[in-house]
Amino acid sequence: MRKRRFRLVRARNVLECESGAALVEMTVILPVLLILFVGGVEFGRALTYHHAIEKAARDTGRYLSRLPEALAFDQTRARNYFQYGLFTSQLPTQPPAPITRPGQLDSFLVERATRLSRTNVIVKADVRYRFDLLTFVGLGPELTFKVQHEQPLIEE
């Protein structure tokens, strides 16, 4: 009985303590934990975005490799296919959302390369990605994803 009573008194003393040490500790630790959490979420978004950009470059290279050589190296059509999935020289008035969103396409190039007497299509793109979730804490880093895919020209 005495032991139980001691626990109740001790718990009551802790609850009535107004020194504020716990509040100070929380104000120091909470921003660090928040930045770590948001940074982890943002890093996951960046990896997903990089994968989407890689896939777009691979799909563009595969699509262009099956076209006649005159069409395969048309920069405007290739860029539109990479960004929007539309192989046209002019976009419609309401184009779909680009695959490069939320980033910005800095440079895009389709080139021809000859390797072992075979013509290859090379798709190169530089896409800038900004960490939007980290801007509220004053951090605004950017990454530039450089992707490249090479595919043999098939011309079916």
What does the model show?
With 156 residues, the protein is an alpha+beta fold. The protein has one domain (21-152). It contains 4 helices and 3 strands, in the order H-H-H-H-E-E-E. The protein has helices at residues 2-16, 21-65, 69-72, 75-84; strands at residues 104-115, 118-130, 142-152. It has a 3-stranded antiparallel β-sheet, covered by helices on one side. Helix 2 (21-65) packs across helix 4 (75-84). It is elongated and about 85 Å long. The relative contact order is 0.16. The model has no long low-confidence stretch (mean pLDDT 84).
Relevant terms:
156 residues, alpha+beta, 3-stranded antiparallel beta sheet, 4 helices, membrane, TadE-like domain-containing protein, TadE-like_dom
How do the strands and helices of this protein lay out in sequence?
Elements: H1 2-16, H2 21-65, H3 69-72, H4 75-84, E1 104-115, E2 118-130, E3 142-152
Helix pairs in contact: 2-4
Strand order of the largest sheet: 1-2-3
Low-confidence stretches: none
How many beta strands in the DSSP annotation? 3
| Main sheet summary | 3 strands, antiparallel
Supply Rg.
27 Å
**What order do the helices and strands follow?**
HHHHEEE
